[in-house]
Amino acid sequence: MTAPPRADGLPDPGAPLAHYVSDAPFDPNLDDAGAAAVAEASQLRLMWWQFRRHRIAVVSLVFLLLLYTSTIFVEFLAPYHQDTRHLDDIYEPPQQVHLFHEGAFVGPFVYGRHMTLDMDNLRRVYDETGSRVDRLRFFCRGDPYLFWGQIPASLHLVCPAEGGTFFALGTDRLGRDVLSRMMYGARISLTIGLLGVTMSLVLGIVIGGLAGYHGGWFDAAVQRVTEVLQSIPSIPLWMALAAIIPVTWSPLLVYVGITLILGLLDWTGLARAVRSKLLSLREEDYVLAARLMGAGTGRIIGRHMVPGFMSHLIASATLTIPGMILGETALSFLGIGLRPPITSWGTMLTEARSVNIVAIYPWLIFPVLPVILVVLAFNFLGDGLRDAADPYH
Predict the structure, then answer these.
(1) pLDDT tens digits for range 315-369
(2) For residue 328, what are the CA distances in angstroms to 88, 98, 255, 372?
(3) Structural domains of the chain ordered from first start
């Protein structure tokens, strides 16, 4: 039983001590696994309380969860298929969504456009007629697609009016909808960061854990290797390894190859973090007790030492994902990473290489906006996790 709270929400300091004692009896038969579960639950709860105080980190977490969830249903959310070409709408600027027409509420709609050729500047000019109202349709039938490449369907969240178009972010040089391609590209650009950091995390824990636990010549060799890798500029090294990938490989093999490159070259930072933690933890009494009981190296590192700073590893991995997303974007932008028909934010930015193209068609640089937002969100999330995992914060 607990004492009734005061007006300010705090318990009455004059109440008997018995009022602050839990009614739940103490279980003397609680084994080590149960005690560890209680301690872990308490630690996670404290971390969650601390994390909730970091408002920007919470907002970033919600934003990333929504973004990654949208990649599952990207075929349904995108207005068009990523490869659908509109030959009459090449380089069409973004269409603005309206709600009112001539003072009357119509609902979400766009004005129909008329295309003319500017022979003086050799470019297409799209003029809104102002008279044709193309109302957007929701939960409608549109371009057919294979959901995750398996299930045929044609249902979309939003579609243009019958006989009309809806290009919220314009079209590219082939008349493809930029917004739809950005949605499809998110699936590649976001997942390549997760797969790469998973591989980096595994390598960092294994190599850094063995170096920190055993020390000696193995630790010295690992440190020299990490110093050499960290001294080489990342972009030229990525470029050199990406150039080795044969051009005859299928898009899936190229995707796997780029993921392997990003994961194999980015484990050094996590390995050093794991090594520094294990150097201090290997002298603890519970590690010595596990060693005396005959536990092997893998069990000591995996069951007794790594869980003690797993929160720190999660925060470090969260801060590593943006680097891999930027790496894939840079490689694809330079033309040596992912290649068409794979759609990613980096491959979409290849059309914005020329300053003249960007000056005439500025909407082609829109794919850089999700890259900036995702990188900032991961950095804020990593800061919040790091502060929540720090017991002295």
Answers:
(1) 777 878 888 888 888 888 877 777 778 888 888 888 888 788 888 888 999 999 9
(2) 32, 36, 10, 14
(3) 81-175 (no CATH), 180-389 (1.10.3720.10)
